[in-house]
Amino acid sequence: METNISKRLLDVADYIPYGVKLLDVGSDHAYLPIFLVEQDLITSAIAGEVAKGPYNSALTNVTESGLSDSVEVRLADGLAAFEPEDGIGAISVCGMGGYLITEILTAGLDKLTAGQRLILQPNNREDDVRSWLSANGFAIIAEKVMIENHKFYEIIVAEAGEQKLTAAEVRFGPCLLRGKSETFLRKWQRELAKLEVALTQVPSANQADRKALVQRIDAIKEAISYES
Ligand code: SAM
């Protein structure tokens, strides 16, 4: 079966370690596990879904792709989709809000083990995800920002480790700040332009709001010109 995998999920796939068993949390169509198994990039996967409709879509796609032996679809909330004996080596949580991702990780924190890699792709509130990782014994080992359908997406990859992050690293990403890719610069230049327009619309009497906006603008300017 031809999977309809998006460029965003293809970019996520790049960070799944070769030959692991993957847990994909929130796997509404199971596109990522199907793609990885079809390409022989992983041995097997669990596609976890909490909602019945998306679970059924995942089940249908896995059955139609003939991969039922290697991709197991489980109806489960977050990390409840796996047990230690499943031997999960990587966990992807993609396409949902950053805060929800941290809630899922917190609820299953006692199940995470040192050998597991986390591949997270929040649709927003990336700073929440980074703060959570730093506070819970994970170090960010790679990051990517990509654009699809005019929207920017960040991918955050972490493994067990100690990492203290500065406020700028939490907001912009430690690896993204250092790499400053063209897409990173485009993302923040777009945000900067929006904030500068917003600033012209805040009355000068409203000093508190102006100050907060100026601080955000200055932080972006600093990040864009950041030298490691
Ligand atoms: N991961 C896919 C992607 O990136 O394209 C699907 C993203 S879809 C927008 C988010 C999916 O996560 C939904 O199908 C939703 O039901 C599922 N979801 C949300 N919270 C979940 C949880 N706690 N456990 C498992 N799945 C969850």
Provide a short characterization of the protein structure.
The chain is built from nine helices and seven strands; from the N terminus they run H-E-H-E-H-E-E-H-E-H-E-E-H-H-H-H. The chain has 228 residues and is an alpha/beta fold. A seven-stranded mixed sheet has the order 3-2-1-4-5-7-6, sandwiched between helices.
Give keywords.
alpha/beta, 9 helices, TrmK, 2 domains, seven-stranded mixed sheet, tRNA (Adenine(22)-N(1))-methyltransferase, elongated, Rossmann fold, 228 residues, binds S-adenosylmethionine, SAM-dependent_MTases_sf, single chain
What would CATH call the homologous superfamily of the largest domain?
Vaccinia Virus protein VP39
| Helix-strand sequence | HEHEHEEHEHEEHHHH
Low-confidence stretches: none
Bound molecules: S-adenosylmethionine
Tell me the total number of β-strands.
7
Taken from the alpha-carbon principal axes, the silhouette is: elongated
Beta-strand residue fraction = 15-25%
